[in-house]
Write a structure and sequence with these properties.
- With 278 residues, the chain is of the alpha/beta class.
- It has a single domain, classed as Purple Acid Phosphatase, chain A, domain 2 (4-Layer Sandwich).
- Helices cover 21% and strands 24% of the residues.
- The chain is built from 7 helices and 15 strands.
- The strands form 3 sheets. Strands 1, 2, 3, 12, 13, 14 and 15 form a 7-stranded mixed sheet that branches.
- It is globular, with a radius of gyration of 18 Å.
- The two termini are 16 Å apart.
- GO terms for molecular function: hydrolase activity; metal ion binding.
- Pfam families: Metallophos.
- Keywords: Hydrolase, Iron, Metal-binding.
- Belongs to the cyclic nucleotide phosphodiesterase class-III family.
Amino acid sequence: MPAFAHISDLHFGSEDPSTTRALIAELNRERLDLVILSGDLTLAARSGEYADARRFIDALKAPTIAVPGNHDITPFNLGERFLMPYRRWHRYVSAEIEPSWFGPEAAVVGLNTARRMRLRLNWSHGSLSRRQIVTLPARFAPAEANAFRIVVAHHPFIAEDTEDLSDRPRVLVKRAKAALQAFAAEGVDLVTAGHLHRTYAAAFDTPPATSAVITQEVAQSHRVTVIQAGTALSARTRGEPNSFNRIEIDGDTMEVHTVAWRGKRWERTDEPLVTIRR
């Protein structure tokens, strides 16, 4: 049974060493097919923090896929922030900021929602460009026909307290509604994100309409499930324990379980956070 770990907001620079060692041991014990890192590997994009993140990744037995978060762009060196925002990411983590991973049961595509700046006071919020949205079909082109489709981003596309998801959901990603429609059109099953240090699941299943960014009209609704991960290592837990999500695929069913740190061990919930059935 294929299994993936979705971890987010490691925030090296504020991590607890004992929890970090326990997380590495847990992820290696699980015999995972892939570890998904949905951004904020560092606290302030310092070289030492990136070096710690690199050592963490190198200690894992499973392959990894990672996208940047807003904390992974330096807030101190403005020249670097504006001219070479991913210089340290490229040096320590990956040559890519939007990597992909393809297996027989799942196709995983990364989208970078972090920005060096935005035309608003809070630069920590995320954004997607129109180009990122329209090129999504090409990104998923290598996927197996029956593979579950997963998008990895840092910022949430649906806020936790949104009640009516069919009507302009409150979000932290610019162009989120267009992106969710494109995800549905492309048959994306799951979107993994972090940023809020909160664990929750939500769904978007309004039938997508034809628009400038969707070239194929879709007559049938497709549900896109969004899952958020709490922080794996940071002390800023927002009232939750440190945690990550475990994604399991069994035939035509995909389940997500939360795995929480209980001080001495990582504990997987019996009840799934969400179940997706084909």
